[in-house]
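Weekly puzzle thread! Below is a chain. First person to post its structure in token form gets bragging rights.
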Amino acid sequence: MSQCLNELQSILDNNNGIITTAQVTRAAIPRRCLAELVAAGKIYKVDRGIYARPDVWEDEMFLLQYRFSKGIFSHGTALYLHAMTDRTPHTYTMTFPHGYNAGGLKNRNVTAKYATQSIYDLGIAEISSPSGNTIRVYDIERTLCDIVKGNNSCDIQLVNAAMKAYAVSSKKDVSKLLECAERLRVKTKILTYMEILL
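Winning reply:
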């Protein structure tokens, strides 16, 4: 067991106290080692295929993305992750490829959005969750385009605040924003906000 502990401890230390069965398999560690550590109280099972040390705060965003691997945090959740809004999301929004079966999300506090394959991959980035784990999120340009989509579905105050924050951001890339807006067919709306706010 000491050999298991050393090998698994290294993975746990590098992943904020969380380990997945996929990581164990990639490291060629026998899965029985996980069961031994659970029995010894060194780790506990968080969800299917995910284990954590008892002292670790469960990272709901990381767990959701591990469980629903095709999901990308988007819309208001992405704004929050990019620090472009002070609104903490009550429910998480994730975008999935069109046709993805997200039935298991019903009891997971997640709003599912769907995108065609041609735009699903547009603007995927990695960011640290509030607990410090790496998760996938749409970049800020894609997120701004997503939140202005739809006729009356966008929250004007949220959009205005996000666009104002973008206008003063040192990381803004207006040409990238316009290119994304063109692909998502919201260029007119984005240009209108830019004229008012930028």
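Puzzle host: Confirmed. Bonus trivia for everyone else. The chain has a mean pLDDT of 87.
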